[in-house]
Amino acid sequence: MNASNNTPLCYANTSTPYMYAPDMGKIYFSASFSALGLTSNLIAFIVLIKSCQQTKSRSRSFFLIFLAGLVVTDFMGLLVTGSFVISFYITWVDWRQFDPTCHFCNFMGMSMVFYGLCPLLLGATMAVERFVGINCPFARSTNITKGRTVSMVLMVWFFAGCISLLPLIGFGSYHIQTPGSWCFLNISPERHDWAFSLLFSFVGLICIAVSFLLNTVSLVTLIKVCCGPDRNQRRRDHEVEMMVQLILIMTIATVCWCPLLVFIAQTALSGSPMNVRYLLIWIRFATWNQILDPWVYILFRRSVLKRLYPRIDLPQRSIMTSYASFSENMRRFTRPSLGNLSSHDKENVEKSNVAPPSTVKPSA
Questions:
Q1: Do the record's keywords include Cytoplasm (predicted)?
Q2: Strand-strand pairing, 182-185 and 174-177
């Protein structure tokens, strides 16, 4: 079907030549990829629910809510997009004939943008939460509740959803992409397409930059507190665990998404034709983010690390533990001679320490 006035916009292919090639990919790869990601996120979600029920730390429970939002987002993203791709390889359907009104193509494009931006936005939001929690713990403890934390997750979803809906009102457009199994934003010199491409790219890059900056400051602050003179005033083991997980989430998002975001921005700014081959490579690369994210929490938990490395020296102890240790050390220091003696010997020592009555008569 050639582009014409009667051709729907999503099939006009104003940016790149579209090629219908159902034999270009393999269903086994897509099915295995989706199954691995769905299973990983499902396991992570079950572990998160159990941790939420067992945790007694408020900051930890808030962080788990954000993690649960991230896991749900990744799971739904793989489920929706994977269903479209797998069904394409099973049926070899040509969307230009099956979906002449572009409803499925627009929905697929919206899903790609929404489930692509959500992990980046949630990562930046988690970085902000940890930054406030570490640097302003008292202000955070009075202002943040579980209800507000859930509201923040919903606001992230709402913001990403608003961006994904922009092409439906004329700001940008979604187009079918080679080999015909998916739709994505149209990177073309047209003003609306150009602006929407840069919006998608810059929002993602800004989220990564904010995460990197705030996580770096939080990490430096946490190291200073843990190694400083006041290291035993607050419980730090949960905070270090959360910080390690957040750093890993940020690293995975950066490695997986930066090539695609930079590629889109570079193509839009240069005005050069888009390289379909690189687009496919970077899209598949970005999808690994949804598979690797859940394993950060599944593997990098204190309970798991203790089993793998029993001798691991986890961070600082709580106040009560420090106080008990201090009391025991003081008791041993004040009574060194009694610490290693039996009860009978202790009684003898105590009796020997009693001064005998004086035998010297007072002078007249």
A1: no
A2: antiparallel
Q: How many CB atoms lie within 10 A of CB 123?
A: 28
Q: What is the DSSP string of 262-315?
A: HHHHHHHHH-PPP-HHHHHHHHHHHHHHHHHHHHHHHHSSHHHHHHH-TT---S
CA-wise closest residue to 59 among 185, 197, 237, 215: 237
Q: What are 94-116's pLDDT values in tens digits? A: 777 777 788 888 999 999 999 99
Angle at the Cα of 160 (from 156 to 163), degrees rounded to 5? 145
> What residue ranges of the chain have pLDDT lower than 50?
1-5, 233-234, 313-327, 329-331, 333-346, 349-355, 358-364
Q: Are 222 and 201 in contact (CB under 8 A)?
A: no
3-class DSSP state of 180: coil
Task: Please provide residue 26's backbone torsions phi and psi, each rounded to the nearest 5 degrees.
Answer: -125, 135
Residues contacting residue 318 through CB under 8 Å, at least 6 positions apart: 235
Cα distance between residue 72 and residue 69, in whole Å: 5
Q: Would you list the DSSP string of 91-153?
A: H---HHHH-TT-HHHHHHHHHHHHHHHHHHHHHHHHHHHHHHHHHSHHHHHHH--HHHHHHHH
Does CATH place domain 26-308 in 1.20.1070.10? yes
Residues 73/118, Cβ–Cβ less than 8 Å: yes
Do 219 and 144 contact (CB within 8 A), yes or no?
A: no
Question: Rounded CA gap, 284 and 282, in Å?
Answer: 5
